[in-house]
Structures are given as C-alpha cells and as structure tokens.
C-alpha cells in the first residue's frame, strides 16, 4: 500500500493511511514522512528508512523499487510511506508500476499535499476571488537537474505559482519572473511547513533571494508566488515596516 503521509504534521494523515500502517508487515518510509507515524505500527514490524534528500540517498530509486518487491515477497503487506501525496512529485506511480509488474497487488492511499497544505497553514490560499483564479504546481528541478521549462510559461500567468524542490534554483526562478515584469509580486518561502521547525519568509520576487539567504532557508521548502501571498496575515504589516526602515 502506497500511503501519503501528509506535509509534515503527524496529525495531517488520513484515517485510511493510519489503518494501513497498523496492518503493515513491513514499512518503508521516506525522509519527509513524520517518524511519529511509525508509532502506529505493530510491535516488531520491520521499519526501513529509504529516504532521499539532495546530496544524499539511502537508496537509489531502482533499489527502492527492488526492496518493495523483495519485502512484499518476504513479509507480506508492505506499506510505502511517502511525504505529502505520493503522486505529486513523489515518484509513487513508478513504484506502484514496478510492483505490479512483479505480481504485487497494490493500492494507493492519497495524502494531504504540501503544495496546498503548507501555504494554507500559513494563511495563504492558493486561490481567492479577485486575486487568483487558478494555481500551478511545478518542480523547480527536473530529472536532468535543469530548471523546469514550465517556469517561464508560468511567469506569464496571473495564476498562483507553487514550486516544490526549487531552493537550489531560487535565483534563476526569480530572474525569470523579474524579466516578465513580476519583480513586485508577493512571494513566500515556507521551510519545513506544518512542523515545529517551520520557517516562513515573506517578500517580493525581487527581494526574496536575499531574505531567504539571511534566514538560512533550504529544502524542504515550498515557494509561493502570486497576489495571494499578500493575504498572509503578516504580509502587509511586515512589508510596510521593512520599507519604512529602509527609508
């Protein structure tokens, strides 16, 4: 069973996800899955960390696929616990497809995706009448390590732009939006959203790279660009105060 663990807060998982964990014979979990969720597992259930972060992987994706099948054959019910929703830049479909090719019955338990939940927890709606009629969700870095070609297209839109895994490309991203005349557009970076370590930096496209650097922000982070960021409860107050200090 492929289970979405939610954006980080241990309570933001579905009841169906908890039931799956409780019935697991073995659990393979990611770096972004809250380890408190493992407390729902039965005693002596094997727990295998297979997390991947930039700069260090416990296992390659191919090895993870193999471990899913091997453990299903050895133990029975494998729960693959992945942060957020496993089908939103989580490579969940690849794992399901591989398991099915090896005769493993599979099901998916959707998770609360960080692309919506993390901004929402900060009081930023991804859509709001008069501010944004739609939203784009995209990866900042493609499989080849390059910047997504969807970002220049997104910069032409009036939609809210939500970018995951984009901190290493932050400067490139903001330059694209500035070139599209969006330098004054409100922007937020939310690191470790919905957890006790959460950090949120507010600003505009033109000044957010400096602010992010000053606050030491890094992945995992959600980048939000658009008028809706201006609806953050502290945005206007914080931005006016900084402008006044600057003067």
List keywords for this structure.
247 residues; elongated; alpha/beta; five-stranded parallel beta sheet
Protein model, in words:
By secondary structure, this protein is α/β, with parallel strands linked by helices. Helices cover 30% and strands 19% of the residues. It has eight helices and twelve strands. A five-stranded parallel sheet has the order 3-2-6-1-7. A hairpin with a 7-residue loop joins β10 and β11. α2 packs across α3. The longest helix is centred in the N-terminal third of the chain and has 14 residues. The protein starts with a strand and ends with a helix.
Topology, please?
Elements: E1 2-4, H1 15-23, E2 26-29, E3 47-49, E4 52-53, E5 56-57, H2 61-74, E6 78-82, H3 92-101, E7 108-109, H4 114-121, E8 135-139, H5 150-154, E9 160-164, H6 170-179, E10 186-191, E11 199-204, H7 208-214, E12 221-225, H8 235-246
Parallel strand pairs: 1-6, 1-7, 2-3, 2-6, 8-9
Antiparallel strand pairs: 4-5, 9-12, 10-11, 10-12
């Amino acid at each position: 069973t492929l289970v979405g663990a939610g954006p980080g807060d241990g309570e933001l998982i579905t009841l169906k996800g908890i039931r799956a964990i409780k019935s697991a014979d073995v659990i393979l979990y990611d770096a972004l899955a809250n380890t408190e969720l493992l407390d729902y597992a039965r005693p002596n259930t094997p727990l295998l960390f297979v997390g991947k972060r930039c700069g260090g992987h416990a296992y390659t994706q191919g090895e993870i696929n193999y471990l899913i099948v091997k453990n299903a054959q050895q133990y029975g019910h494998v729960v693959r616990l992945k942060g957020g929703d496993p089908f939103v830049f989580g490579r969940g479909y690849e794992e399901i497809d591989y398991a099915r090719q090896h005769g493993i019955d599979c099901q998916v338990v959707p998770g609360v995706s960080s692309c919506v939940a993390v901004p929402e927890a900060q009081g930023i709606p991804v859509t709001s009448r008069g501010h944004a009629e739609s939203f784009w969700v995209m990866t900042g870095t493609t499989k080849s390590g390059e910047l997504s070609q969807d970002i220049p297209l997104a910069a032409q839109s009036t939609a809210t732009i939500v970018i995951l895994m984009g901190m290493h490309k932050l400067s490139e991203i903001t330059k694209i939006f500035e070139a599209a005349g969006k330098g004054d557009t409100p922007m937020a970076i939310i690191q470790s959203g919905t957890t006790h370590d959460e950090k949120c930096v507010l600003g505009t496209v033109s000044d957010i790279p400096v602010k992010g650097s000053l606050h030491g922000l890094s992945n995992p982070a959600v980048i939000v660009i658009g008028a809706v960021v201006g609806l953050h409860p502290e945005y206007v107050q914080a931005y006016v105060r900084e402008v006044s200090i600057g003067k």
